[in-house]
Specification:
Largest sheet: 3 strands, antiparallel
Order of helices and strands: HEHHEE
Structural class: alpha+beta
Strand content: 5-15%
Strand order of the largest sheet: 1-3-2
CATH class: Mainly Alpha
Number of domains: 1
């Protein structure tokens, strides 16, 4: 039986595909996910070392990258 991809799996796959994507791009690509769920999962992935959050000065954008 195949397991459905978790929110974290989906986010990591997108970040791998689009180097340097933003939170906004994730929520646009996954309209079935609530922005808050994306934000919480990004924070969890960042704390576990699976994702890097880079704060830019341009409009206070957060760019997501793989470590």
């Amino acid at each position: 039986m195949l397991q459905a991809a978790t929110i974290g799996d989906r986010i990591l796959e997108l970040v791998k595909e689009i180097h340097g994507c933003t939170l906004e791009e994730i929520t646009q690509r996954f309209p079935d996910l609530h922005w808050y769920d994306v934000y919480i999962e990004v924070e969890r992935l960042s704390r576990s070392g699976k994702l890097r959050l880079i704060h830019t000065s341009v409009l206070s954008t957060i760019v997501l990258r793989l470590p």
